[in-house]
Amino acid sequence: MAERRFSVAGLPGFATIALGVFVCLYLPIVTLVVYSFNGGPSIAVWQGFSLHWYTEAWGNRAVQDATLRSLIVAAWASAIATTLATMAALGTTRRAAFRGQTFIYVMINQPLMVPEIVTAVALLIFFASIKVATGYQGLGYLVAAHSAFCIPFAYLPIRARLEGMDMTLETAAADLYATPWQTFRHVTLPLLAPGIAAGAMLAFVISLDDVIITEFVKSGGQDTLPTYMLGQLRRAVTPEVNAISTALLALTVLLLTAFFLLTRKRN
Amino acid sequence: MSRPEDTLRRRSDRNGWLLSAPALALLVFAASGPLMIVLVYSFLEKGQYGNVIWEFSLDGWVGILFSRDIFDGTLNLADAHMTIFWRSVKLSLLTTLITFTLGFPTAWFIATRPPAQRALWLFLMTIPFWTNLLIRTFAIGEILRTEGLINTALLKTGLIAAPIQMLYNEGAVLVGMAYVYLPLMVLPLFAAIERFDMRLLEAAYDLYASRMQVLRHVILPIVKPGIVAGSILVFVPSLGAYVTPRILGGGKNMMIGNFIELQFGQGRNWPLGAALSMTLLVIVTVALLFYVRAINRSGSGGGSHG
Protein backbone atom coordinates (compact mmCIF):
# COMPACT_ATOMS: atom_id res chain seq x y z
CA MET A 1 0.00 0.00 0.00
CA ALA A 2 1.46 3.32 -1.06
CA GLU A 3 -0.39 5.64 1.27
CA ARG A 4 -0.23 5.07 4.98
CA ARG A 5 -3.67 5.27 6.41
CA PHE A 6 -4.28 5.88 10.08
CA SER A 7 -5.55 2.57 11.40
CA VAL A 8 -7.57 2.77 14.59
CA ALA A 9 -6.71 -0.75 15.65
CA GLY A 10 -2.99 -0.25 15.03
CA LEU A 11 -0.77 0.45 18.00
CA PRO A 12 2.82 1.48 17.28
CA GLY A 13 5.41 -1.24 17.74
CA PHE A 14 2.88 -3.96 18.49
CA ALA A 15 3.33 -5.78 15.18
CA THR A 16 7.12 -5.73 15.57
CA ILE A 17 6.92 -7.16 19.10
CA ALA A 18 4.42 -9.80 17.97
CA LEU A 19 6.57 -10.96 15.05
CA GLY A 20 9.59 -11.03 17.36
CA VAL A 21 7.62 -13.16 19.81
CA PHE A 22 6.68 -15.65 17.10
CA VAL A 23 10.30 -15.91 15.96
CA CYS A 24 11.50 -16.49 19.54
CA LEU A 25 8.72 -19.01 20.09
CA TYR A 26 9.68 -21.13 17.09
CA LEU A 27 13.44 -20.63 16.86
CA PRO A 28 14.27 -23.11 19.68
CA ILE A 29 11.76 -25.69 18.43
CA VAL A 30 12.96 -25.44 14.82
CA THR A 31 16.60 -25.64 15.95
CA LEU A 32 15.77 -28.72 17.98
CA VAL A 33 14.16 -30.39 14.97
CA VAL A 34 16.90 -29.35 12.52
CA TYR A 35 19.76 -30.65 14.69
CA SER A 36 18.00 -33.98 15.18
CA PHE A 37 19.10 -34.58 11.57
CA ASN A 38 22.69 -33.53 12.22
CA GLY A 39 25.44 -35.88 11.07
CA GLY A 40 27.74 -35.07 13.98
CA PRO A 41 27.28 -35.13 17.75
CA SER A 42 26.84 -31.35 18.10
CA ILE A 43 23.60 -29.49 18.81
CA ALA A 44 24.88 -26.25 17.26
CA VAL A 45 27.40 -27.06 14.50
CA TRP A 46 25.92 -28.48 11.32
CA GLN A 47 27.81 -31.48 9.98
CA GLY A 48 25.56 -32.67 7.19
CA PHE A 49 22.18 -34.36 7.00
CA SER A 50 21.82 -37.78 8.50
CA LEU A 51 19.24 -40.02 10.13
CA HIS A 52 21.97 -41.37 12.39
CA TRP A 53 20.38 -40.19 15.65
CA TYR A 54 17.00 -41.63 14.73
CA THR A 55 18.48 -45.06 14.08
CA GLU A 56 20.57 -44.65 17.25
CA ALA A 57 17.46 -43.86 19.31
CA TRP A 58 15.42 -46.56 17.65
CA GLY A 59 18.10 -49.16 18.29
CA ASN A 60 18.29 -48.18 21.95
CA ARG A 61 16.50 -50.78 24.04
CA ALA A 62 15.62 -48.29 26.81
CA VAL A 63 14.00 -45.95 24.26
CA GLN A 64 12.00 -48.81 22.73
CA ASP A 65 10.72 -49.87 26.15
CA ALA A 66 9.88 -46.31 27.18
CA THR A 67 8.06 -45.62 23.91
CA LEU A 68 5.99 -48.76 24.20
CA ARG A 69 5.19 -48.01 27.85
CA SER A 70 4.20 -44.42 27.02
CA LEU A 71 1.84 -45.60 24.31
CA ILE A 72 0.28 -48.32 26.49
CA VAL A 73 -0.32 -45.96 29.39
CA ALA A 74 -1.66 -43.21 27.11
CA ALA A 75 -4.01 -45.62 25.30
CA TRP A 76 -5.45 -46.98 28.56
CA ALA A 77 -5.65 -43.58 30.22
CA SER A 78 -7.28 -42.03 27.19
CA ALA A 79 -9.84 -44.86 26.90
CA ILE A 80 -10.74 -44.82 30.60
CA ALA A 81 -10.79 -41.02 30.95
CA THR A 82 -12.89 -40.59 27.80
CA THR A 83 -15.45 -43.21 28.89
CA LEU A 84 -15.84 -41.72 32.36
CA ALA A 85 -15.84 -38.16 31.01
CA THR A 86 -18.53 -39.01 28.44
CA MET A 87 -20.76 -40.41 31.18
CA ALA A 88 -20.12 -37.40 33.41
CA ALA A 89 -20.83 -35.02 30.53
CA LEU A 90 -24.13 -36.80 29.84
CA GLY A 91 -24.92 -36.52 33.53
CA THR A 92 -24.15 -32.83 33.88
CA THR A 93 -25.46 -31.25 30.67
CA ARG A 94 -28.87 -30.86 29.08
CA ARG A 95 -30.80 -31.36 32.30
CA ALA A 96 -32.16 -28.96 34.89
CA ALA A 97 -29.48 -27.78 37.29
CA PHE A 98 -29.39 -30.14 40.26
CA ARG A 99 -28.05 -30.02 43.75
CA GLY A 100 -24.35 -30.80 43.76
CA GLN A 101 -23.75 -29.99 40.11
CA THR A 102 -21.21 -27.30 40.98
CA PHE A 103 -19.48 -29.79 43.25
CA ILE A 104 -19.21 -32.22 40.33
CA TYR A 105 -17.73 -29.47 38.10
CA VAL A 106 -15.17 -28.54 40.72
CA MET A 107 -14.20 -32.18 41.26
CA ILE A 108 -13.83 -32.86 37.54
CA ASN A 109 -11.73 -29.76 36.95
CA GLN A 110 -9.72 -30.19 40.11
CA PRO A 111 -6.65 -31.67 38.30
CA LEU A 112 -6.41 -28.43 36.31
CA MET A 113 -6.22 -26.34 39.48
CA VAL A 114 -3.96 -28.26 41.85
CA PRO A 115 -0.24 -27.81 41.08
CA GLU A 116 1.04 -31.00 39.50
CA ILE A 117 3.88 -31.36 41.98
CA VAL A 118 1.35 -31.47 44.85
CA THR A 119 -0.72 -34.20 43.19
CA ALA A 120 2.50 -36.06 42.38
CA VAL A 121 3.60 -36.02 46.01
CA ALA A 122 0.13 -37.09 47.17
CA LEU A 123 0.10 -40.03 44.78
CA LEU A 124 3.65 -40.99 45.76
CA ILE A 125 2.59 -41.30 49.39
CA PHE A 126 -0.73 -43.01 48.69
CA PHE A 127 0.52 -45.50 46.09
CA ALA A 128 3.65 -46.28 48.11
CA SER A 129 1.46 -47.58 50.92
CA ILE A 130 -0.70 -49.57 48.48
CA LYS A 131 2.45 -51.04 46.95
CA VAL A 132 3.63 -52.16 50.37
CA ALA A 133 0.20 -53.53 51.32
CA THR A 134 -0.52 -55.44 48.10
CA GLY A 135 2.89 -56.07 46.62
CA TYR A 136 1.56 -55.05 43.20
CA GLN A 137 4.12 -52.99 41.29
CA GLY A 138 2.64 -52.91 37.78
CA LEU A 139 1.59 -50.21 35.36
CA GLY A 140 -1.85 -49.95 37.02
CA TYR A 141 -0.73 -47.04 39.20
CA LEU A 142 0.42 -45.01 36.22
CA VAL A 143 -2.78 -45.82 34.33
CA ALA A 144 -4.95 -44.80 37.31
CA ALA A 145 -3.05 -41.54 37.86
CA HIS A 146 -3.04 -40.64 34.15
CA SER A 147 -6.72 -41.52 33.71
CA ALA A 148 -7.62 -39.21 36.60
CA PHE A 149 -5.79 -36.12 35.37
CA CYS A 150 -6.94 -36.73 31.78
CA ILE A 151 -10.63 -36.62 32.76
CA PRO A 152 -11.04 -32.80 32.59
CA PHE A 153 -9.28 -32.67 29.21
CA ALA A 154 -11.62 -35.31 27.79
CA TYR A 155 -14.65 -33.80 29.52
CA LEU A 156 -14.40 -30.25 28.14
CA PRO A 157 -14.74 -30.97 24.37
CA ILE A 158 -17.41 -33.63 24.98
CA ARG A 159 -19.44 -31.25 27.13
CA ALA A 160 -19.03 -28.47 24.55
CA ARG A 161 -20.34 -30.79 21.84
CA LEU A 162 -23.30 -31.91 23.99
CA GLU A 163 -24.29 -28.37 24.82
CA GLY A 164 -24.53 -27.64 21.10
CA MET A 165 -27.00 -30.52 20.60
CA ASP A 166 -30.68 -29.99 21.42
CA MET A 167 -33.00 -32.75 22.63
CA THR A 168 -35.25 -32.77 19.52
CA LEU A 169 -33.88 -35.97 17.99
CA GLU A 170 -33.79 -37.83 21.30
CA THR A 171 -37.35 -36.76 22.02
CA ALA A 172 -38.41 -37.92 18.56
CA ALA A 173 -36.74 -41.29 19.15
CA ALA A 174 -38.49 -41.65 22.49
CA ASP A 175 -41.82 -40.77 20.83
CA LEU A 176 -41.21 -43.64 18.41
CA TYR A 177 -40.90 -46.05 21.35
CA ALA A 178 -37.14 -46.32 21.36
CA THR A 179 -35.84 -47.46 24.76
CA PRO A 180 -33.45 -45.04 26.50
CA TRP A 181 -30.56 -47.34 25.58
CA GLN A 182 -31.60 -47.53 21.91
CA THR A 183 -31.93 -43.74 21.84
CA PHE A 184 -28.49 -43.36 23.31
CA ARG A 185 -26.88 -46.00 21.10
CA HIS A 186 -28.43 -44.92 17.79
CA VAL A 187 -29.06 -41.19 18.22
CA THR A 188 -27.00 -39.53 20.95
CA LEU A 189 -23.77 -41.49 20.54
CA PRO A 190 -23.34 -40.99 16.76
CA LEU A 191 -24.02 -37.28 17.15
CA LEU A 192 -21.60 -37.05 20.03
CA ALA A 193 -18.85 -39.09 18.34
CA PRO A 194 -16.72 -36.16 17.08
CA GLY A 195 -16.68 -34.68 20.59
CA ILE A 196 -15.68 -38.02 22.08
CA ALA A 197 -12.92 -38.48 19.50
CA ALA A 198 -11.62 -34.96 20.20
CA GLY A 199 -11.67 -35.61 23.95
CA ALA A 200 -9.87 -38.93 23.51
CA MET A 201 -7.11 -37.32 21.43
CA LEU A 202 -6.59 -34.52 23.91
CA ALA A 203 -6.43 -37.03 26.76
CA PHE A 204 -3.92 -39.12 24.78
CA VAL A 205 -1.66 -36.12 24.16
CA ILE A 206 -1.87 -35.00 27.79
CA SER A 207 -0.99 -38.48 29.05
CA LEU A 208 1.85 -38.85 26.54
CA ASP A 209 3.37 -35.53 27.68
CA ASP A 210 3.19 -35.99 31.41
CA VAL A 211 6.46 -35.78 33.30
CA ILE A 212 6.00 -34.87 36.95
CA ILE A 213 3.26 -37.24 38.09
CA THR A 214 4.85 -40.11 36.13
CA GLU A 215 8.24 -39.39 37.67
CA PHE A 216 6.78 -39.72 41.18
CA VAL A 217 4.37 -42.61 40.60
CA LYS A 218 6.49 -44.98 38.48
CA SER A 219 8.15 -47.98 40.08
CA GLY A 220 11.74 -48.84 39.21
CA GLY A 221 12.28 -49.55 35.50
CA GLN A 222 8.97 -48.00 34.48
CA ASP A 223 10.31 -45.02 32.55
CA THR A 224 8.01 -43.43 30.00
CA LEU A 225 9.50 -41.46 27.13
CA PRO A 226 9.34 -38.08 28.97
CA THR A 227 10.86 -39.43 32.20
CA TYR A 228 13.54 -41.23 30.19
CA MET A 229 14.38 -37.91 28.52
CA LEU A 230 14.43 -36.11 31.85
CA GLY A 231 16.93 -38.67 33.09
CA GLN A 232 19.08 -38.29 29.96
CA LEU A 233 19.29 -34.51 30.29
CA ARG A 234 21.62 -34.90 33.27
CA ARG A 235 24.26 -36.42 31.01
CA ALA A 236 26.05 -34.99 27.99
CA VAL A 237 23.45 -34.00 25.45
CA THR A 238 23.61 -35.58 22.00
CA PRO A 239 21.11 -35.11 19.16
CA GLU A 240 19.57 -38.44 20.21
CA VAL A 241 17.32 -36.52 22.61
CA ASN A 242 16.51 -34.15 19.73
CA ALA A 243 15.45 -37.11 17.63
CA ILE A 244 13.16 -38.49 20.36
CA SER A 245 11.72 -35.00 20.96
CA THR A 246 11.09 -34.50 17.26
CA ALA A 247 9.26 -37.82 16.99
CA LEU A 248 7.11 -36.96 20.01
CA LEU A 249 6.53 -33.47 18.62
CA ALA A 250 5.42 -34.87 15.27
CA LEU A 251 2.94 -37.19 16.99
CA THR A 252 1.52 -34.31 19.06
CA VAL A 253 1.11 -32.00 16.07
CA LEU A 254 -0.54 -34.82 14.11
CA LEU A 255 -3.08 -35.51 16.88
CA LEU A 256 -3.75 -31.81 17.42
CA THR A 257 -4.38 -31.20 13.74
CA ALA A 258 -6.86 -34.06 13.77
CA PHE A 259 -8.43 -32.55 16.90
CA PHE A 260 -8.86 -29.15 15.22
CA LEU A 261 -10.38 -30.70 12.12
CA LEU A 262 -12.82 -32.67 14.27
CA THR A 263 -13.92 -29.69 16.35
CA ARG A 264 -14.10 -27.36 13.37
CA LYS A 265 -16.58 -29.56 11.49
CA ARG A 266 -19.15 -28.72 14.13
CA ASN A 267 -19.34 -25.08 13.01
CA MET B 1 -45.40 -28.28 40.83
CA SER B 2 -47.36 -31.45 40.20
CA ARG B 3 -46.31 -34.80 41.57
CA PRO B 4 -45.28 -36.67 38.37
CA GLU B 5 -43.02 -33.77 37.43
CA ASP B 6 -41.40 -33.99 40.83
CA THR B 7 -40.67 -37.66 40.36
CA LEU B 8 -39.24 -37.09 36.91
CA ARG B 9 -37.10 -34.29 38.22
CA ARG B 10 -35.78 -36.42 41.05
CA ARG B 11 -35.01 -39.27 38.67
CA SER B 12 -33.14 -36.86 36.37
CA ASP B 13 -31.09 -35.56 39.30
CA ARG B 14 -30.29 -39.10 40.39
CA ASN B 15 -29.18 -40.02 36.87
CA GLY B 16 -26.96 -36.95 36.81
CA TRP B 17 -25.19 -38.19 39.90
CA LEU B 18 -25.09 -41.84 38.80
CA LEU B 19 -23.52 -40.95 35.45
CA SER B 20 -20.92 -38.74 37.08
CA ALA B 21 -20.15 -41.21 39.87
CA PRO B 22 -17.47 -43.33 38.11
CA ALA B 23 -15.49 -40.24 37.10
CA LEU B 24 -15.79 -38.83 40.62
CA ALA B 25 -14.73 -42.16 42.13
CA LEU B 26 -11.55 -42.27 40.05
CA LEU B 27 -10.78 -38.62 40.82
CA VAL B 28 -11.22 -39.27 44.55
CA PHE B 29 -8.98 -42.33 44.29
CA ALA B 30 -6.15 -40.86 42.21
CA ALA B 31 -6.37 -37.07 42.63
CA SER B 32 -8.40 -35.47 45.45
CA GLY B 33 -8.36 -38.23 48.05
CA PRO B 34 -4.57 -38.53 48.27
CA LEU B 35 -4.42 -34.76 48.94
CA MET B 36 -6.13 -35.49 52.28
CA ILE B 37 -3.38 -37.99 53.08
CA VAL B 38 -0.79 -35.28 52.42
CA LEU B 39 -2.62 -33.07 54.92
CA VAL B 40 -2.50 -35.85 57.53
CA TYR B 41 1.18 -36.57 56.83
CA SER B 42 2.08 -32.92 57.39
CA PHE B 43 1.10 -33.39 61.05
CA LEU B 44 3.19 -36.52 61.65
CA GLU B 45 6.70 -37.20 62.90
CA LYS B 46 9.34 -37.79 60.24
CA GLY B 47 10.86 -41.23 59.89
CA GLN B 48 14.61 -41.65 59.91
CA TYR B 49 14.80 -43.11 56.40
CA GLY B 50 11.95 -41.19 54.82
CA ASN B 51 8.27 -41.97 55.35
CA VAL B 52 6.64 -41.04 58.67
CA ILE B 53 6.16 -42.22 62.23
CA TRP B 54 2.51 -42.16 63.26
CA GLU B 55 2.83 -39.63 66.06
CA PHE B 56 1.37 -36.14 66.06
CA SER B 57 3.93 -33.43 65.46
CA LEU B 58 3.98 -29.87 64.21
CA ASP B 59 7.63 -30.14 63.12
CA GLY B 60 6.67 -30.28 59.44
CA TRP B 61 4.83 -26.96 59.62
CA VAL B 62 7.39 -25.31 61.90
CA GLY B 63 10.09 -26.51 59.52
CA ILE B 64 8.69 -24.37 56.71
CA LEU B 65 9.98 -21.21 58.33
CA PHE B 66 12.39 -22.35 61.04
CA SER B 67 15.25 -24.75 61.42
CA ARG B 68 16.21 -26.30 64.74
CA ASP B 69 19.75 -25.77 65.93
CA ILE B 70 21.48 -29.17 66.15
CA PHE B 71 23.27 -28.32 69.40
CA ASP B 72 20.88 -26.42 71.65
CA GLY B 73 17.57 -27.13 69.87
CA THR B 74 16.61 -23.46 69.51
CA LEU B 75 14.57 -22.39 66.51
CA ASN B 76 16.09 -20.04 63.97
CA LEU B 77 14.61 -18.55 60.85
CA ALA B 78 15.65 -20.89 58.02
CA ASP B 79 17.46 -18.60 55.59
CA ALA B 80 17.83 -21.27 52.91
CA HIS B 81 14.06 -21.82 52.87
CA MET B 82 13.40 -18.08 52.72
CA THR B 83 15.70 -17.80 49.72
CA ILE B 84 13.76 -20.52 47.90
CA PHE B 85 10.34 -18.99 48.68
CA TRP B 86 11.51 -15.54 47.69
CA ARG B 87 13.03 -16.88 44.47
CA SER B 88 9.80 -18.72 43.60
CA VAL B 89 7.58 -15.70 44.18
CA LYS B 90 9.98 -13.30 42.50
CA LEU B 91 10.51 -15.45 39.40
CA SER B 92 6.76 -16.19 39.12
CA LEU B 93 5.86 -12.48 39.31
CA LEU B 94 8.58 -11.58 36.81
CA THR B 95 7.43 -14.36 34.49
CA THR B 96 3.88 -12.99 34.66
CA LEU B 97 5.15 -9.46 33.97
CA ILE B 98 7.35 -10.49 31.03
CA THR B 99 4.70 -12.70 29.44
CA PHE B 100 2.18 -9.86 29.77
CA THR B 101 4.52 -7.26 28.28
CA LEU B 102 5.27 -9.48 25.30
CA GLY B 103 1.94 -11.29 25.20
CA PHE B 104 -0.36 -8.27 25.07
CA PRO B 105 1.04 -6.86 21.80
CA THR B 106 1.09 -10.39 20.39
CA ALA B 107 -2.53 -11.08 21.31
CA TRP B 108 -3.51 -7.66 19.94
CA PHE B 109 -1.65 -8.39 16.71
CA ILE B 110 -3.42 -11.75 16.26
CA ALA B 111 -6.84 -10.30 17.07
CA THR B 112 -6.47 -7.45 14.57
CA ARG B 113 -5.45 -9.64 11.61
CA PRO B 114 -8.01 -10.15 8.83
CA PRO B 115 -10.25 -13.12 9.78
CA ALA B 116 -8.71 -15.45 7.19
CA GLN B 117 -5.18 -14.94 8.57
CA ARG B 118 -6.26 -14.88 12.20
CA ALA B 119 -6.92 -18.63 12.41
CA LEU B 120 -3.41 -19.36 11.16
CA TRP B 121 -1.69 -17.04 13.66
CA LEU B 122 -3.83 -18.49 16.42
CA PHE B 123 -2.90 -22.02 15.39
CA LEU B 124 0.78 -21.01 15.48
CA MET B 125 0.27 -19.91 19.08
CA THR B 126 -1.68 -23.06 19.97
CA ILE B 127 0.97 -25.55 18.81
CA PRO B 128 3.54 -24.53 21.43
CA PHE B 129 0.71 -24.44 23.98
CA TRP B 130 0.07 -28.16 23.50
CA THR B 131 3.67 -29.17 22.91
CA ASN B 132 5.33 -31.08 25.70
CA LEU B 133 6.66 -28.67 28.32
CA LEU B 134 9.74 -30.84 28.76
CA ILE B 135 10.56 -30.64 25.05
CA ARG B 136 10.11 -26.86 25.01
CA THR B 137 12.26 -26.42 28.11
CA PHE B 138 14.85 -28.67 26.54
CA ALA B 139 14.69 -26.69 23.28
CA ILE B 140 15.33 -23.35 24.97
CA GLY B 141 18.06 -25.00 27.04
CA GLU B 142 19.85 -26.17 23.92
CA ILE B 143 19.88 -22.60 22.63
CA LEU B 144 21.34 -21.24 25.88
CA ARG B 145 23.89 -24.03 26.40
CA THR B 146 27.65 -23.34 26.41
CA GLU B 147 27.89 -25.39 23.21
CA GLY B 148 24.52 -24.07 22.06
CA LEU B 149 23.41 -21.88 19.19
CA ILE B 150 23.91 -18.42 20.75
CA ASN B 151 27.41 -19.13 22.02
CA THR B 152 28.46 -20.85 18.80
CA ALA B 153 27.21 -17.89 16.76
CA LEU B 154 28.89 -15.33 19.02
CA LEU B 155 32.17 -17.26 18.98
CA LYS B 156 32.12 -17.54 15.19
CA THR B 157 31.54 -13.83 14.70
CA GLY B 158 34.35 -13.14 17.13
CA LEU B 159 32.22 -11.06 19.48
CA ILE B 160 33.31 -13.21 22.41
CA ALA B 161 36.47 -15.20 22.98
CA ALA B 162 35.06 -17.77 25.36
CA PRO B 163 31.50 -19.12 25.66
CA ILE B 164 29.25 -17.31 28.11
CA GLN B 165 27.70 -19.44 30.84
CA MET B 166 24.01 -18.70 30.36
CA LEU B 167 22.50 -21.83 31.89
CA TYR B 168 22.12 -22.80 35.54
CA ASN B 169 21.22 -19.42 36.98
CA GLU B 170 18.03 -17.58 37.88
CA GLY B 171 18.09 -15.72 34.57
CA ALA B 172 17.95 -18.99 32.64
CA VAL B 173 14.98 -20.18 34.73
CA LEU B 174 13.21 -16.88 34.11
CA VAL B 175 13.81 -16.97 30.36
CA GLY B 176 12.68 -20.61 30.29
CA MET B 177 9.48 -20.00 32.25
CA ALA B 178 8.58 -16.94 30.18
CA TYR B 179 9.18 -19.04 27.08
CA VAL B 180 7.09 -22.04 28.12
CA TYR B 181 4.21 -20.12 29.73
CA LEU B 182 3.81 -17.34 27.13
CA PRO B 183 0.95 -19.07 25.24
CA LEU B 184 -0.99 -19.30 28.53
CA MET B 185 -0.95 -15.50 28.63
CA VAL B 186 -1.60 -14.86 24.95
CA LEU B 187 -4.62 -17.14 24.50
CA PRO B 188 -6.94 -15.61 27.17
CA LEU B 189 -5.77 -12.11 26.20
CA PHE B 190 -6.66 -12.89 22.61
CA ALA B 191 -10.11 -14.13 23.66
CA ALA B 192 -10.73 -10.83 25.47
CA ILE B 193 -9.38 -8.60 22.69
CA GLU B 194 -11.32 -10.45 20.01
CA ARG B 195 -14.57 -9.42 21.72
CA PHE B 196 -13.39 -5.83 21.99
CA ASP B 197 -15.47 -3.41 19.95
CA MET B 198 -13.02 -1.49 17.74
CA ARG B 199 -15.57 1.30 17.22
CA LEU B 200 -14.77 2.42 20.75
CA LEU B 201 -11.31 3.32 19.48
CA GLU B 202 -12.74 5.47 16.70
CA ALA B 203 -14.89 7.23 19.26
CA ALA B 204 -11.89 7.82 21.50
CA TYR B 205 -9.70 9.16 18.68
CA ASP B 206 -12.57 11.38 17.50
CA LEU B 207 -12.57 12.85 20.97
CA TYR B 208 -8.86 13.69 20.59
CA ALA B 209 -7.51 10.94 22.83
CA SER B 210 -3.82 10.18 22.35
CA ARG B 211 -2.58 6.62 21.72
CA MET B 212 -1.45 6.35 25.32
CA GLN B 213 -4.78 7.59 26.64
CA VAL B 214 -6.67 5.15 24.45
CA LEU B 215 -4.55 2.26 25.67
CA ARG B 216 -4.75 3.30 29.29
CA HIS B 217 -8.40 4.40 29.57
CA VAL B 218 -10.22 2.42 26.89
CA ILE B 219 -8.43 -0.79 25.94
CA LEU B 220 -6.91 -1.97 29.21
CA PRO B 221 -10.03 -1.53 31.40
CA ILE B 222 -12.20 -3.44 28.94
CA VAL B 223 -9.85 -6.37 28.36
CA LYS B 224 -9.10 -6.60 32.10
CA PRO B 225 -10.80 -10.01 32.54
CA GLY B 226 -8.40 -11.41 29.92
CA ILE B 227 -5.45 -9.82 31.71
CA VAL B 228 -6.50 -11.33 35.03
CA ALA B 229 -7.11 -14.74 33.44
CA GLY B 230 -3.75 -14.75 31.64
CA SER B 231 -1.87 -13.60 34.72
CA ILE B 232 -3.40 -16.31 36.91
CA LEU B 233 -2.81 -18.97 34.25
CA VAL B 234 0.87 -18.00 34.14
CA PHE B 235 1.42 -17.26 37.83
CA VAL B 236 -0.10 -20.49 39.18
CA PRO B 237 1.99 -22.99 37.18
CA SER B 238 5.09 -20.79 37.56
CA LEU B 239 4.80 -20.99 41.32
CA GLY B 240 4.54 -24.77 41.17
CA ALA B 241 7.14 -25.14 38.40
CA TYR B 242 9.35 -28.20 38.67
CA VAL B 243 10.65 -29.24 35.27
CA THR B 244 11.92 -25.83 34.07
CA PRO B 245 13.93 -24.90 37.20
CA ARG B 246 15.29 -28.44 37.37
CA ILE B 247 16.60 -28.41 33.81
CA LEU B 248 17.63 -24.78 33.42
CA GLY B 249 18.44 -23.82 37.00
CA GLY B 250 20.66 -26.72 37.97
CA GLY B 251 20.77 -27.82 41.61
CA LYS B 252 21.41 -24.39 43.11
CA ASN B 253 18.38 -22.50 41.83
CA MET B 254 15.57 -24.56 43.32
CA MET B 255 12.01 -23.34 43.40
CA ILE B 256 9.26 -24.55 45.76
CA GLY B 257 8.40 -27.49 43.47
CA ASN B 258 11.98 -28.80 43.53
CA PHE B 259 12.25 -28.12 47.26
CA ILE B 260 9.15 -30.28 47.85
CA GLU B 261 10.64 -33.10 45.77
CA LEU B 262 13.90 -32.85 47.73
CA GLN B 263 12.03 -33.58 50.98
CA PHE B 264 10.71 -36.83 49.54
CA GLY B 265 14.10 -37.75 48.08
CA GLN B 266 17.44 -37.00 49.71
CA GLY B 267 15.90 -34.70 52.33
CA ARG B 268 13.94 -37.58 53.87
CA ASN B 269 11.56 -35.20 55.57
CA TRP B 270 8.11 -36.23 54.37
CA PRO B 271 6.15 -34.12 56.93
CA LEU B 272 8.00 -30.99 55.80
CA GLY B 273 7.40 -31.91 52.15
CA ALA B 274 3.72 -32.48 52.94
CA ALA B 275 3.42 -29.15 54.78
CA LEU B 276 5.13 -27.35 51.89
CA SER B 277 2.75 -29.00 49.41
CA MET B 278 -0.24 -27.86 51.45
CA THR B 279 1.15 -24.32 51.63
CA LEU B 280 1.58 -24.23 47.85
CA LEU B 281 -1.95 -25.56 47.43
CA VAL B 282 -3.37 -22.84 49.69
CA ILE B 283 -1.53 -20.06 47.85
CA VAL B 284 -2.77 -21.37 44.50
CA THR B 285 -6.34 -21.67 45.80
CA VAL B 286 -6.25 -18.09 47.09
CA ALA B 287 -4.99 -16.91 43.69
CA LEU B 288 -7.80 -18.81 41.94
CA LEU B 289 -10.47 -17.40 44.31
CA PHE B 290 -9.12 -13.93 43.63
CA TYR B 291 -9.44 -14.70 39.93
CA VAL B 292 -13.06 -15.89 40.24
CA ARG B 293 -13.96 -12.76 42.19
CA ALA B 294 -12.27 -10.46 39.67
CA ILE B 295 -14.07 -12.18 36.78
CA ASN B 296 -17.46 -11.98 38.49
CA ARG B 297 -17.00 -8.33 39.38
CA SER B 298 -15.97 -7.26 35.88
CA GLY B 299 -18.68 -9.48 34.41
CA SER B 300 -21.49 -7.73 36.30
CA GLY B 301 -20.04 -4.24 36.17
CA GLY B 302 -18.83 -4.44 32.56
CA GLY B 303 -21.91 -2.79 31.11
CA SER B 304 -21.41 0.50 32.90
CA HIS B 305 -18.01 1.02 31.23
CA GLY B 306 -19.41 1.11 27.73
UniProtKB/TrEMBL annotation, chain A:
GO BP, one annotated term: transmembrane transport
Official protein name in the record: Spermidine/putrescine transport system permease protein PotC
Keyword Cell membrane: yes
Role, per record: Required for the activity of the bacterial periplasmic transport system of putrescine and spermidine.
Transmembrane segments: 12-37, 71-91, 112-133, 139-158, 187-208, 243-262
GO CC terms: plasma membrane
Species assigned in the record: Thetidibacter halocola
Keywords: Cell inner membrane, Cell membrane, Membrane, Transmembrane, Transmembrane helix, Transport
TrEMBL record, chain B:
Ranges that cross the membrane: 21-44, 91-112, 119-139, 172-193, 214-236, 272-292
Localization annotation: Cell membrane
GO biological process, one term: transmembrane transport
Start and end residues of each ABC transmembrane type-1 domain: 85-291
Coarse class of the protein's main subcellular location: membrane
Entry superkingdom: Bacteria
InterPro entries in alphabetical order: MetI-like (IPR000515), MetI-like_sf (IPR035906)
One Gene Ontology cellular component annotation held by this UniProt entry: plasma membrane
Keyword set, alphabetical order: Cell membrane, Membrane, Transmembrane, Transmembrane helix, Transport
Classification via Gene3D superfamilies: MetI-like (1.10.3720.10)
Membrane-topology annotation of the record: Multi-pass membrane protein
PANTHER family in UniProt: INNER MEMBRANE ABC TRANSPORTER PERMEASE PROTEIN YDCU-RELATED, INNER MEMBRANE ABC TRANSPORTER PERMEASE PROTEIN YDCU-RELATED-RELATED
Similarity annotation: Belongs to the binding-protein-dependent transport system permease family. CysTW subfamily.
Protein's name in the database: ABC transporter permease
Organism: Thetidibacter halocola
